[in-house]
# Entry
Amino acid sequence: MSDTTLPSMEGPVCPLPLKHNDQIILGHGSGGRLTHDLIKNIFLPYLSSPPLLSGDDFARLSKSNGEVIVSTDCHIVSPLFFPGGDIGRLAVCGTVNDIAVSGAQPLYLTAGFILEEGLPVQTLIRILDSMRTAAQEAGIQIVAGDTKVVEKGKADGVFITTTGIGFLPEGRHINGHQAQPGDVILVSGSMGDHGIAVLAERGELGFSAQVVSDVAPLNGLIQELLAAAPNTHVLRDPTRGGLATTLNEIAAQSQVGMLLYENAIPIQPAVQAACEMLGFDPLYIANEGKIVAIVPAAEAEAALLAMRRHPYGKLASRIGEVTNDSGRVLLKTSIGATRVLDMLAGEILPRIC
Amino acid sequence: MSDTTLPSMEGPVCPLPLKHNDQIILGHGSGGRLTHDLIKNIFLPYLSSPPLLSGDDFARLSKSNGEVIVSTDCHIVSPLFFPGGDIGRLAVCGTVNDIAVSGAQPLYLTAGFILEEGLPVQTLIRILDSMRTAAQEAGIQIVAGDTKVVEKGKADGVFITTTGIGFLPEGRHINGHQAQPGDVILVSGSMGDHGIAVLAERGELGFSAQVVSDVAPLNGLIQELLAAAPNTHVLRDPTRGGLATTLNEIAAQSQVGMLLYENAIPIQPAVQAACEMLGFDPLYIANEGKIVAIVPAAEAEAALLAMRRHPYGKLASRIGEVTNDSGRVLLKTSIGATRVLDMLAGEILPRIC
# Structure
């Protein structure tokens, strides 16, 4: 399919340049002059890199150092803008983080946009500006893109699918299969902020929650963590399904158990209050700027301190241990009881990420 | 964001396995147990590779030989199934072809699915089966995926965004900037088949067109072409916007002109008839299984013969030459007149790819 990368700046001059108070029309997805206009006047001022400017259907990247790591994510959040972020920041950070949890440094991102006819160009610009800011913070280049337009009522404003690419240094084996009994489980901060922030913005809480999404690129934090704890076994970002689902996935992959201490899991009072009002468990609510790290006990303290030194890890906490109770995640509650913490069963918060 | 790669087969057993006569519900996008069920019972039987089975949020690929090539495309075709293909085959082939036109061999693909609540599982299975067949034909692995579900009425069945990765052999420089005056312009077959096939399936023609989409992976054809014409300057697949738009893009990138011979451009009689009825020009209609090749005159004959030997290149044809009339694409018509062939101005066929 043509126009995978954004056409060249050298393209023909458009007779009717798109204005910021215009709306997206079906012709912007035609691949023809209107698409070139959209790309030249709206996309390129925000997203620009040498491969994008080349105007070919593919992006040519550098040679790899080590193995190539790839990850992809579709972003469908509603509303598009919420306290602390928007779909653009989410689309960059979500994929940056999925690359970073491999231990690789994320370097490149592709972005595919599905736009609904009638979308205000001003809305698209706000999203692109946010993507640019997040990409700069993460130190990545957006190297290829595609834009399609569907009829009004056949999408919901904007959907963005990003794919990230990074290179893995030799000898690094961080993945969900590496957790071992005796390992220590750390989180980089408070749980549930993103999900509650989005829900509050929808007006579904019935009150103002004062919660801000944690959406952030974590590659910087992760590199500092790995410098301090080079034998880290598992890293993962507890997004959809929350901490409980993420730990169940890892327990199943590694065939280990886990024991968590409820008191040690950081949760902001406003998130806790919102969850209590709504009957949610914050351990099942999505995060977009937090990691779980499972590290050998000998490196746990160093890992914790490294995270706490980073702006995105100030509330990092040691929340439990890996056990040999294969596949079972247990939670020691604040009143001293122990209960099984299962994977998320249904859907509590649709369109959260 | 979690679940970039499909969770492991080792995951917890689902209490309510999804059945083929079920429908997609919002919970299938939750990241929890229902998502695992969808992936384990529906996705993995069709799309499976060692990185997918690892169950991590990232896929670990091989080390690269040469530079990494990447390309991404969103697929929004309506209807989802059409003569000769469907959105699944389109999503694989479109991205495979965008990698292949760099001269790289496509090796890996990621796939992001946005599903509309209420989608019949049977429809998803037909699409996945088609993706598997196309991936096998192209010789690529699907290494990472993501699935999100939006409320009924907020999407249109299925949207699929694919990103391809390949490695470029040393010393290969095929791109839109390489066309030179005196080069020969070749196409691998007839123009407009895909767009007309989709339009006919929508019932918009008012008659049955008997046209089948050309959607196909072209990496095999391209490798044979490059073996015969190793100094090929430009390759591109004329998709959205058709041949006319693609050639205008290349003319602008390379700052050259082009002269085409209308009589030499292969167009099937049924496509020609449909276009005449509707007032379309087939040179602006999308193709999904054709390439344009711009080669030095000395290699033109070898390139043409190599394409014609391949099943997807039987109607390959020499259609014109590159000139030094910078940026201008001219068409010598069948009656001997010459007209400017401009880029597609508006949108003639929305939701075609």
Notes: Residues 121-138 of chain B form the longest helix (18 residues). The radius of gyration of chain B is 21 Å. Chain B touches chain A through 105 residues (CB under 8 Å).
